[in-house]
Specification:
The complex is a heterodimer of chains A (about 375) and B (about 375). Chain A has about 375 residues and is an alpha+beta fold. Helices cover about 55% and strands about 15% of the residues of chain A.
Chain lengths: ~375, ~375
Amino acid sequence: MSTTQMDPAPAQSDDADIRALLRNSLDTVLARHYSFEQRRDARESEARESQAAWAAYAELGLLALTLPEGHGGLPVSLADLAMVVEAMGGAMVLEPYAPAMVAARLLSAAGSEDQQTAWLPAICRGEVRVILAHEEANGGYAKPIAASATPDPHGWRLSGRKSAVAGGDTADLFIVSANTANGVALFLVPAADLAIRPARSFDWTGTADLMLDDVIIPTSARLTGGEAALAAALDEAAALACADAVGAIRAANALTRAHTSTRRQFGRSLDAFQVLQHRLVDMTIAQELAAPITAAAIAACAAATPAERARAVSAAKVKVGEAARYVGEQCVQLHGGMGLVQEYPAAHLFARLSLFELSHGDRDYHLERYAELVL
Amino acid sequence: MYTAREQAFAEEVRAFVRSECSEDVRRKVFEAVAVTAQERLAWHKALHARGWAAPHWPAEHGGTGWSPVETYIFSETLAEEGAPDLGSFGLKMLGPTLMQYGTPEQKAYYLPRILSGEDIWCQGFSEPGAGSDLASLKTRAVLDRDHWVVNGQKMWTTMAHESNMMFALVRTDPDAPKPQMGISMLLIDLKTPGIDIRPIILLNGERTTNEVFFDNVRVPAENLVGEPHKGWTYSRVVLGNERLSIARIGLNRRQLARLKRIAAEQGLTTSPHFRARIAEASIELDALEAMATAMLDRARAGVAPGIEANMLKIKGSELQQRLTRLLVEAAGRSAAPFGSGSADPDRPWLARLFKSHFDTRVVSIYGGSNEIQRNIIAKSLGLGASR
């Protein structure tokens, strides 16, 4: 894991103490549960993840970060949460930590007091996993959603389909976005009430398609907040995914540096060849550009107006996307054949970074959204 | 780019593929599904029956006697039509090497078996410590009366598990003044005791490559190709074959067609961004094809390809990578589910897009990495010569 982190916002000493404490316990839990061999065992297990690691996150309070204290949460900043996500990206954790935190934060921002009381304490304890299901196959990230919610004598009738929902395979509870006559609304739906097709992604994390075939849910399942809360959650999800990618980029650079300093060809180490030195320098520059712009996006999610937030998040998604592509590809290239095998981390980092590029809106979407805001 | 006669020939080849290569197998190739050894062999036999298994071979050895241009048209048309690749090791690498350097007995025995598909060859060159720096290889062969005794390890031995024979580079003179001068080429029957072939599993879960261990493997002395300690020279010939098709124009055309199909299905052909990227890739392919055509023109005039072949290797492999990346981008997050168990039953091809993307990362690594290709070009341009 990397020793450098994203630039923390200027903090009071209490905050700095909390952050250092968090950092320590996080390092301990990842060291204990996420060696590459442990990750292999976890990904090949029936659960396709480490249940021991998830229990450890809960025990350390990582699943309560930034959530309201009254419901069992720990009041730290979004930047602290991003620091945790970055470390998990570097360790390539299989559990949907960031997606679950985004959904829990959305529930605390958009849920009624009753809904929060009903779910948040169990979420903070790691007993309930909540996931936001928004993206759709043919809609993509950018286009209006097709899933619909229509009034029904018993509440609401949901229909449509959600596609490739990260963490959807292991969720207990979903927040589902759907169109109503009055715009997009959000609904709490237990996983048990839905037809779910689980799958593994090419980076071994879990995903699922949700089939909403005229699912009837009670009126009380609707969240108080709607479109604005959803937009904030989607931006947070993108910004936290950038943090995860920054962690993976750091890990890929560290791995490539280690390999090129020990692998010898033509009588010298690979990193003694100038062409490869320049490549490694460009990989490092990409990393150093990606980390601060991610920190800026996280800060904008915490404080800025929706437009400023959108601009900062789209900027980060584009720049971190470029870094992810370059570092991921060069990590494989500079490892040669070793970069492609299953029993070595390089290809796994490439896969994680590739999936990041495809998720939370692609490059075209974010370029377009950014252009709309600045032109 | 083709003359009328060449065009007619291309159509003849196209018609042959469409009638003789099963629809199923061609669809597999189009959709990047692995073709089985049996399916590949069936296609090999169909080509062999037509006399087209080794078009680049001279007629005296069962080749077609075609010109380099006809051979080029043939191989690019096959790729474009989704015919499975027969593999290069026997037909394109070892065959021509034996014709040039093999003993009369080796030619008489091995060449017909390569042609018919009876022997399937793999190449034992790379080792754990010898990749780009191939000449540093350590696998030893020591002559013991009428046998070479081989000890050591090969790595990245593609298709070894589906082959029965290997041509290998081994160190026969550890005291040679330069490492290149102590290497010989041996023909090794993979059923010989002491050989252990272990799979290397790639990220996508496929076994296409292997590690091969040699523990006192006894190889008959007559299986040495040419003269002892000349293996390095022979290997340069092996790696230099197939230069005309190095840009993989046909394969790139096929991937471009796949990209257009999927982009249309995803509604992306109206996106100005995505249209531009498809157009850029298509223009790159046009440029590569124009460059390959110029090389063909020189080949028609009897001029062998020079460093333009190395340039085409670099740019052709980069285009393959660009096209498969665009395939994944066209699908977006829908390409996340991976493997047959995860496939969307309505759109099973989605679960194979990342595989194509991942698989093409190797094309800038193998066959002399793109870094090595650039070194060769730099040297040929005389860069740094005034130092």
